[in-house]
Design brief:
By secondary structure, the protein is of the alpha/beta class. It has 19 helices and 11 strands. The strands form 4 sheets. A 4-stranded mixed beta sheet has the order 2-1-3-11, covered by helices on one side. A 3-stranded antiparallel beta sheet has the order 9-4-10. Strands 5-8 form a two-stranded parallel ribbon. Strand 6 and strand 7 form a beta hairpin. The longest helix has 16 residues.
């Protein structure tokens, strides 16, 4: 987040409180702000196709801006700050947010109260994971967004490499060999000896550590470095020096190549959307040669929340979208089965699991059993509005250290220089 956006966020919080009092008029254009194709696909496949009458005469307009370099937030912030003066058909109606920056929008009047303003009831969100509601609850206890997703993670590994090196691909037996970080390191050495990389690169394990911090990144205005972050740095440096990783960065072509049929990477820390939406499927992939276990420690990663924008003239549609995609059990189960999402209802996942849910990508394993175990452990009590900036900056700063371009002290100095430019209100 740039200084401009920090200032903009402050302006939003200060100015928005008196802006919106308009009642729903039933607009002709539904403007939805997103950063990729994920929510448009869920909207079209599981809402619009099933509710054509509600959308009669309404143009659905997805305003899509990539996340890179804060572009999505910049675009959204500009639109929200102009919301009061925008023409009805140009107003933001729905916008999506991710966990890393959700808090930036929660405590502002730019997000509709899901209960009071949109009209959902407590019973409508009763089955949703508490952490997904905690993330979107403001300082006054108002729920400002809902999600169809839950995002507990695990360790996704290659079955054929597990059989060759560990003697088994059974998730229960593999988990026993990966149940803590010391055991994980032991398996990494075995994989190296067999010609495989334990992980793809520098960022792979970051979420498994960062999601288990005991203190938020910022207390008051002081930056706090949790021991889990230092543990990630130490492990990643060791893995790089010993050749336990492939020196790839997340989202790089090298990282993706490791997932392919001829890839040499043993495993990835992943959540449902990662192996369904990001890992390659189809010809040339290793589909079916993967499995999932809990890994050394539970974690969650990401998630997409649906927010209603104050000032929208399509509140009736916002309510219907939220109800259909996040509260309707049958729709949630449909999303899980057809789209592969880990859904925001433990009850619905238990039903699917009991019915024999299987993932072809994971060699017909039932991943819901893993997600239910790790999902029950998720807590977001240490989240802060600085999480995205801190995560991106620490990963970028330490890459030069892993590459051997700078020493550790220099990497830390580079981290603090960059982060204090992003957040001049903070201090070391």
């Amino acid at each position: 987040m740039t200084k401009r956006i920090v200032i903009g966020a402050c302006m939003m919080a200060l100015a928005a409180s008196s802006m919106f009092a308009a009642k729903n008029k039933g607009g002709k254009v539904l403007n939805i702000y997103v950063w990729n194709d994920e929510f448009p696909a869920r909207f079209n496949d599981f809402y619009a196709s099933k509710n054509p009458k509600l959308l009669e005469g309404v143009k659905v307009n997805f305003i899509q801006t990539p996340n890179q370099d804060n572009a999505y937030q910049n675009k959204l912030d500009e639109a929200l700050m102009n919301q009061a003066n925008a023409k009805d058909d140009e107003k933001v109606d729905i916008f999506c947010v991710e966990a890393d920056y959700a808090l930036k929008y929660v405590d502002t009047a730019y997000t509709l109260d899901v209960m009071k303003d949109v009209g959902l009831k407590k019973k409508d969100v009763a089955n949703q994971y508490q952490y997904t509601k905690d993330i979107m609850t403001d300082s006054k206890g108002k729920l400002k967004g809902v999600s169809w997703q839950s995002t507990p993670g695990g360790f996704v590994y290659r079955r054929s490499y597990a059989k060759q090196v560990l003697g088994t691909d059974d998730p229960v037996k593999v988990q026993a060999m990966l149940s803590d970080w010391n055991k994980f390191d032991e398996v990494a050495a075995k994989m190296k000896a067999a010609g495989y990389f334990m992980l793809s690169g520098y960022d792979d394990a970051f979420r498994a550590f960062a999601d288990n911090i005991k203190s938020p990144w910022v207390k008051g205005n002081k930056i706090v470095i949790d021991p889990q972050i230092n543990r990630w740095i130490e492990q990643t440096k060791t893995y790089t020096e010993k050749g336990y990783n492939n020196k790839a960065s997340l989202w790089s072509a090298e990282s993706t190549q490791g997932m392919m049929k001829n890839g040499k990477v043993f495993g990835y820390f992943a959540v449902g959307w990662f192996f369904d939406f990001c890992m390659p499927h189809g010809d040339g992939s290793a589909e079916g040669d993967w499995a999932i276990c809990e890994g050394p420690q539970g974690f969650s990663w990401g998630g997409t929340w649906i927010c209603g924008a104050a000032g929208s003239d399509n509140v009736d549609i916002i309510k219907d979208v939220m109800m259909a995609l996040t509260s309707d059990t049958n729709t949630l189960k449909d999303i899980c089965v057809k789209a592969g999402d880990c859904i925001n209802s433990a009850a619905a996942m238990k039903e699917l699991s009991a019915d024999g849910y299987k993932s072809a990508f994971l060699g017909n394993q039932n991943p819901l059993e893993i997600f239910l175990k790790n999902g029950a452990k998720i807590s977001k009590s240490n989240m802060s509005k600085y999480d995205q900036g801190m995560s991106e900056t620490i990963q970028s700063a330490m890459k030069d250290y892993y590459d051997g371009k700078v020493d550790l002290d220099t990497a830390w100095n580079n981290f603090y220089t960059t982060i204090l430019e992003k957040y001049p209100n903070l201090k070391k």
